[in-house]
Amino acid sequence: MIITSCCVTIGAQQTLLTSGGNASGTGGSASYSVGQIAYTYSEGSAGSLSAGVQQTYEIIEVTGIAETDEMLISVFPSQVTSFLSLVTETDNFKVLKFRLFDLNGKMIRSGKIKDRLTKIYVGDLVRSTYLIEIYDGNIKSRSYKFIKN
Fold first, then answer.
1. Residue 101: beta bridge partners?
2. Cβ contacts of residue 8 below 8 Å, gap of 6+?
3. How far is Cα 65 from Cα 78, in angstroms, rounded to an integer?
4. DSSP assignment of 48-76, as one string?
5. How far is CA 80 from each of CA 34, 96, 124, 142, rounded to the nearest angstrom?
6. What is the DSSP string of 82-133?
7. Which one of 9, 28, 54, 129 has the lowest number of neighbouring Cβ atoms within 10 Å?
8. Domain boundaries along the sequence of the chain
9. Tell me: domain 65-148, CATH 2.60.40.1220, correct?
């Protein structure tokens, strides 16, 4: 009696990449790819990691002023370390609120806009790009992108 055992390993590609490469410098090295759709997300007390996802670095003028139906809102600075400022010219604070999101769409915090100048503490957030949405009642009136340094 002869018993034969065979082990076969099959590999498959998870993504079809359009481009990619390696980058290195004095601070270390990294590989990058364009077109990747699979990633792993981990979160801990020191922050979060999206392995396999390319993190963008954009500088966007968020200090611009956007007019809504009855109010004027400005959000600044675009690169913030501790406090993000919201300035509005309306007196109708009963319905104004904000929601702060990370780039994964997770809501970090929310609150009411209670005065013409509202300062939101973001010093406890990890360095990344975030979105803040301004709501007039239950209707989203504006979204702004800012960078936490």
1. 107, 131
2. none
3. 12
4. EEEET-PPP-------SEEE-SS-EEEEE
5. 29, 22, 12, 19
6. SEEEEEE--S-TTSEEEEEEETTS-EEEEEE--SSEEEEE-TTSPSEEEEEE
7. 9
8. 19-51, 65-148
9. yes
Which residues does the chain have with pLDDT short of 70? 1-20, 31-41, 46-71
Residue 147 carries which DSSP code?
E
Instruction: Check if the beta carbon of residue 86 is closer than 8 Å to that of residue 68.
Output: no
Q: Token match 């709501």: residue?
A: 135
| The pairing of beta strand 65-67 with beta strand 47-51 | unpaired
119-149 residue pLDDT tens: 999 999 999 999 999 888 888 888 889 999 8
> Residue 7: which residues within 8 A CB-CB, separation 6 or more?
none
The set of residues, in sequence order, having a beta carbon less than 8 Å from that of 27 and lying 6+ positions away, is: none
92 vs 90: CA distance, rounded Å: 6
Backbone φ and ψ of 41, nearest 5°: -115, 125
Of 138, 99, 98, which is closest to residue 115 (Cα–Cα)?
98
CA gap 53, 82 in Å, rounded: 26
